């Protein structure tokens, strides 16, 4: 990411290159795949806003957040410890002004990126939080969130909306088997979430398919009216987000979640037909896309 104002470094293999900031974060700012032009992630180096603890800079890419979202937990990202150990990269922040220590562990595996997120609480009073991985992707694609309806008389799916979400938003499509959110940049935002039991969500970006795979626990308590996945779009990026169950933390306790990114070059237009093809592949190959 040559136009980044902050120092960064890279890890790579024959198929992927991943760029990360080295002095602040933890933050992944670049994802490049063989055969794919440009950065798969969104770049927002100049976006910032005030918080109770100082100015926060969005930077773009992938960040580690906490849920429920609360401005008290949004702090400027200052300093970073970078640890390399046997092919694994660890990005660890110091304890911030809110009492949170954040860590992302990264490992490349062919066209996959294995991520482990950890948030450790250092405040004196107990708190209930979830770890929340937010991946900002470039505009122009389409997020795919699968739905897995069951038989019977009891409710089996949830759809969660945010105050600014319009049900008639042209970017939002609701189908019996999936939710689609298109990455068209507009001034107003649209966000939707649900409790995903399939264990994956994806974004078709034309020349590449970006997929997140994650563990699901439908019996656990989740934030945001029961969401473990969420998708968001406005004018700069489209986001694919994954949340852990809520956990009550005492001082020194941590909450974690893991996700695996799969990056598949190919022809993936933002259409319903593409989305259903991807869903069939995941069902056939038990949660792994084999394009």
Features:
mainly beta; 22 strands; Beta-galactosidase, Chain A, domain 5; 291 residues
Mean pLDDT: 94
Question: Are there runs of 5+ residues with pLDDT below 50, and where?
Answer: none
Task: Report the biggest beta sheet as strand number plus sense, adding barrel if it closes.
Answer: 10 strands, antiparallel
Order of helices and strands: EEEEEEEEEEEEEEEEEEHEEEEH
Please tally the β strands and state the result. Answer: 22
- Give the percentage of residues in beta strands: over 45%
CATH topology grouping: Beta-galactosidase, Chain A, domain 5
Structural class: mainly beta
Helix amount: under 10%
Count of structural domains: 1
Alpha-carbon Rg, integer: 18 Å
Oligomer: single chain
CATH architecture: Distorted Sandwich
Could you outline the blueprint of secondary structure elements for this entry?
Blueprint: E1 8-12, E2 16-21, E3 27-33, E4 43-51, E5 54-60, E6 62-67, E7 81-85, E8 88-92, E9 100-109, E10 112-121, E11 127-137, E12 142-146, E13 160-161, E14 172-174, E15 178-182, E16 190-194, E17 200-204, E18 206-214, H1 223-226, E19 229-233, E20 238-243, E21 247-249, E22 254-268, H2 272-284
Antiparallel strand pairs: 1-2, 2-3, 3-6, 4-5, 6-11, 7-8, 8-9, 9-10, 10-22, 11-20, 11-21, 12-15, 12-17, 13-16, 14-15, 16-19, 17-18, 18-22, 19-20
Describe it for me?
The protein is mainly beta. The protein has a single domain, classed as Beta-galactosidase, Chain A, domain 5 (Distorted Sandwich), CATH 2.70.98. 6% of the residues lie in helices and 49% in strands. The protein is built from two helices and 22 strands. Strands 1, 2, 3, 6, 11, 13, 16, 19, 20 and 21 form a ten-stranded antiparallel β-sheet that branches. A ten-stranded antiparallel β-sheet has the order 7-8-9-10-22-18-17-12-15-14, with helices on one face. A two-stranded antiparallel ribbon has the order 4-5. Strand 9 and strand 10 (112-121) form a beta hairpin. The mean pLDDT is 94.
């Amino acid at each position: 990411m040559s136009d980044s104002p902050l120092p960064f470094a890279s890890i790579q293999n024959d198929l992927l290159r991943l760029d990360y900031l080295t002095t602040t974060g933890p933050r992944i700012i670049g994802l490049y795949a063989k055969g794919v032009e440009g950065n798969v992630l969104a770049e927002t180096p100049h976006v910032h806003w005030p918080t109770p603890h100082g100015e926060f800079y969005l930077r773009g890419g992938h960040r580690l957040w906490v849920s429920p979202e609360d401005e008290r937990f949004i702090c400027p990202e200052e300093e970073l410890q970078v640890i390399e150990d046997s092919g694994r990269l660890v990005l660890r922040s110091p304890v911030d002004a809110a009492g949170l220590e954040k860590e992302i562990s990264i490992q490349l595996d062919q066209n996959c990126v294995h991520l482990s997120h950890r948030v450790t609480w250092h405040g004196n009073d107990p708190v209930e939080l979830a770890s929340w991985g937010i991946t900002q992707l470039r505009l122009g694609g389409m997020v795919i969130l699968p739905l897995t309806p069951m038989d019977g008389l009891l409710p089996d799916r949830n759809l969660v909306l945010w105050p600014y979400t319009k049900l008639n938003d042209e970017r939002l499509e609701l189908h019996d088997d999936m939710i689609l959110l298109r990455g068209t940049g507009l001034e107003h935002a649209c966000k939707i979430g649900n409790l995903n039991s399939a264990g994956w969500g994806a974004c078709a970006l034309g020349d590449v398919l970006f997929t997140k795979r994650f563990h699901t626990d439908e019996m656990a308590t989740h934030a945001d009216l029961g969401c473990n996945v969420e998708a968001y779009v406005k004018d700069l990026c489209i986001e694919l987000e994954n949340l852990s169950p809520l956990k009550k933390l005492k001082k020194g306790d941590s909450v974690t979640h893991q996700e695996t990114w799969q990056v598949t070059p190919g022809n993936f237009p933002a259409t319903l037909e593409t989305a259903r093809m991807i869903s069939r592949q995941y069902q056939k190959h038990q949660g792994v896309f084999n394009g």
